[in-house]
Amino acid sequence: KYPRVTTILNIIHRPELGRWRGELGNVEADRIRGYTAAIGTSLHNVCRLFNRDQSFGMPTTSQIGQMFDAYRRWFGMVIDTVIGTEQLVVSKKFGYAGTFDLLAVLKGDITPSVIDLKTSKDFWPTMALQLAAYREALLEEGKEVNRRLVVRIDKLETGKLEVKEYTQHARDFNAFLAALSLFRY
Questions:
Q1: Longest dimension (CA), the chain
Q2: Cβ–Cβ contacts within 10 Å for residue 84, how many?
Q3: How many Cβ atoms from other residues are within 10 Å of residue 14's Cβ?
């Protein structure tokens, strides 16, 4: 019924992606994209089960295992209470939907933060817009949301985990609404 946040954000041109495809060629870029997407999906699945406190077998590859270990260490140091994981949120007011990775109260905080897990090579500007859209939909649903965080775990340096907090919510949400307007156009 509603377009997904990530689909909407695909309207934003990313020249770095075009350059990368141009350097490698489409066949090799598609091969790498498929491989890295599988890594991201596997890590998301393991983290989703962990976030829900469900039992699971350890990841089958050492790469995913190392990435998960980095996540689990971060989680233990930072997360106090999980409110929700991999849940659909809908903004009926603006007409979009999306699935956030984690809604949790951080140690020392009172209200939850919306958190997205990424396995990308770097942080990208659209990440702030994605989290702003999730936060706004959560607020519309009557849930308090304090912060917006991206937890990025590098696929190449598998133990490297970085966290970036986005604090310019109004600016980021307005940019998302502009992307939504272009998407609809």
A1: 49
A2: 17
A3: 13
pLDDT, averaged across the chain? 90
Ranges of the chain whose pLDDT falls below 50: none
Predicted local distance difference test score (pLDDT) of residue 45: 84
DSSP for the chain?
---BHHHHHTTS--HHHHHHHHHH-HHHHHHHHHHHHHHHHHHHHHHHHHHTT---PPPSSHHHHHHHHHHHHHHHHHEEEEEEEEEEEEETTTTEEEEEEEEEEETT-SS-EEEEEE-SSS--HHHHHHHHHHHHHHHHTT-----EEEEEE-SSSTT-EEEEEE--HHHHHHHHHHHHHHHH-
The predicted structure's pLDDT at residue 60: 56
Q: Which of these, 110, 83, 102, lies nearest to 149 by C-alpha position?
A: 102
pTM of the model: 0.89
